[in-house]
Amino acid sequence: MAIIATFALGLSSAACGNASGNSGSTAGSNGKPTLTFMLDWTPNTNHVGLYVAQQLGYFKDAGINVKILPTAQAGAETSVQNGVANIGFSKLTDLANADAHGADLKLVFDLTQKPIARWCSLKNRNDIKTPKDFAGKTFVTFGSAEQSASVRQMIRYAGGSGDFKTATAGTNTFRTLTSGKGDFAGFYANWEEVESQLNGPALNCFAADKWGVPGNPDQLGFAVKNSWLKNPQNTANLKKFLKAARRGYDYALAHPDKAADILVSQTKTSHLDPKLARASMEKVVREGYWSGNGMGDETTSGKPNQKLTGTVNTADGQKYLDFQYHAGTYTGLHEKKLPYAPQATELSTNKYVQ
């Protein structure tokens, strides 16, 4: 996606590591343990529950301090692996890549219960009606093999050849498309697609799962290092963290406008558009990206179930991992082909979500 940068497990990040990342959390001035959390990108509504929990005191109620760190150039996966942060925002398929190259990470919480990735062209492109029309055109990308495999499958599913050209994404993917340097790109439905609806340019978007890509490509959530979990105090603190974070996300689902305002006020240096934050939260609730139930999915009470789930759907995850494996996306050290597909049950656990 436009918001996902390429990461590498490098020695330079290891040199920046700290003891709190691997051996445990440090104590804050109030005597409570402090956990560090690294974002994956500029603050947005994917992270809103963390800022709500921070602002409303949910973390303190749970007996912990939490320090939210801005994303590092190396990526959240590398930062957690090397002890720069205790917890990082990541997704299942990124952990599959990281672990295949020697990392030891596990997803312990899944925020998104529905695919939120969208593959879009400008709406004024009358020559692009379905993903079939991506064939032969230029894909604006960060060079991800995963993205290319998904796009190729979508084109073929729609009846196209599967061939396309690529162009490196700039700092603004919208600008890359409007400049004519590319024809289509990846976005997130709950952020950039909302931004396009508010401010333009208008987009014509397609969801991969509707066009032949199996499973859920977008199991976004929280990752930790396996060795960090071996310390009983860390696992106890992680459970406290997840409970408080879920409380923050549940608040956001129940009070989307207030939560959006908290996100904006707590991330002033990011200069988030308050209208975008509110509109994004409205779409999250309406489409049920976190709960799995949108406004059209009613329970027996006649009301949509908007409680956060938080658990990893390993069946959906495995379908996508298998697809990407057979597409040749995952390789091990020295770029050697893996003997089998990464396993969702090994890359994730639900036992810490209470």
Could you explain the architecture of this structure?
This protein is an alpha/beta fold and 354 residues long. The chain has helices at 11-14, 19-22, 48-55, 58-61, 76-81, 92-100, 145-157, 173-178, 192-199, 226-229, 232-254, 256-266, 274-287, 314-326, 344-347, and strands spanning 26-27, 33-38, 65-69, 87-91, 105-110, 117-122, 138-141, 165-168, 184-188, 203-206, 220-225. Strands 1, 2, 3, 4, 5 and 11 form a 6-stranded mixed β-sheet that branches. Strands 8-7-9-6-10 form a 5-stranded mixed β-sheet, sandwiched between helices. α3 (48-55) crosses α12. The longest helix has 23 residues, at 232-254. Residues 1-23 and 298-302 have low confidence and may be disordered.
How far do the termini sit from each other?
A: 30 Å
Order of helices and strands: HHEEHHEHEHEEEHEHEHEEHHHHHH
Strand content: 5-15%
Name the quaternary structure. Answer: single chain
Radius of gyration: 20 Å
The largest pleated sheet is described as: 6 strands, mixed
Tell me, what's the shape?
globular
What key attributes describe this structure?
354 residues, alpha/beta, five-stranded mixed β-sheet, 15 helices, globular
Give me a quick take on this structure.
The chain has 354 residues and is of the alpha/beta class.
Task: Indicate the topology.
Elements: H1 11-14, H2 19-22, E1 26-27, E2 33-38, H3 48-55, H4 58-61, E3 65-69, H5 76-81, E4 87-91, H6 92-100, E5 105-110, E6 117-122, E7 138-141, H7 145-157, E8 165-168, H8 173-178, E9 184-188, H9 192-199, E10 203-206, E11 220-225, H10 226-229, H11 232-254, H12 256-266, H13 274-287, H14 314-326, H15 344-347
Parallel strand pairs: 2-3, 2-4, 7-8, 7-9
Antiparallel strand pairs: 1-2, 4-11, 5-11, 6-9, 6-10
Helix pairs in contact: 3-11, 3-12, 11-12, 12-13
